[in-house]
Design a protein that fits this description.
The two termini are about 35 Å apart. It is built from eight helices and eight strands. The longest helix is centred in the C-terminal third of the chain and has 19 residues. It is an alpha/beta fold. An eight-stranded mixed β-sheet has the order 3-2-1-4-5-7-6-8, sandwiched between helices. The chain has three domains: about 35 residues, no CATH class; about 180 residues, Rossmann fold; about 35 residues. One of its GO terms (molecular function) is methyltransferase activity. This is Class I SAM-dependent methyltransferase. InterPro entries: Methyltransf_25 (IPR041698), SAM-dependent_MTases_sf (IPR029063). Keywords: Methyltransferase, Transferase.
Length: about 250
Amino acid sequence: MFSPEGPRLRELAVQALSSVERGYDLLAPKFDHTPFRTPDPVLDATTEALRRAGPFDTGLDLCCGTGAGVDVLRQVCRGSVTGVDFSTGMLTVARERVRPPGPAAGWVRADARALPFGPVFDLVVSFGAFGHFLPRELPGLFAQVHSVLRPGGRFVFPVVAPPRPGSLTYGMLLGFDAVMRVRNAVWRPPFVMYYRAFRFGAVRRELTRAGFRVESWALSEFGRRRDGSPRVRLVVAGRPGPGQTAAGTVNS
């Protein structure tokens, strides 16, 4: 599951008994050697889709971690790009990892639920961070993203189709979420990480309520499931420009 450069079992145990912020501070030096990092094929497919839709000017990587999303932004944005995260450790690694060539990147330590920006971004991306937000926090999170986008700007993130009930992956994720709920019931501070709490239907509704026009782009590189639905899709939530209003989801 982990490469030889990844964290040891004891390190993971210490992280799991910490807060989310402290846990990622500890994990940061070895994070890119874990399966928690968004896989390169997903990052590459997202980059290609955004290249076809762009170019964009300014970009923000929400909950940037070690900067994988900033790498995507630097390939599709003509202007400045910024990574924001509340883990000092992750930002430290990102600063060292993301270097020229390419546009310079800025780094800001902040909570995604209270972003310290005005409406200055044309593109906001996020990769693998939403399991750290409880469902009741999504309206506030999406309102924050909406507030930092310029009219006509887009909020983009990949969503992997959920595993089939009864499959090994389904059972593993169900077990992980159950363990996390027990852990948070008996231990403080809580560590919020639930793989099954981020549901596409609920996310679509909350994005629309936050004022976004929501589209769904299939990433053809990953094929489709037996029912015809994409294995991986990009959610593309646009802040309406002048004369536009929020609307329902458009699939492609």
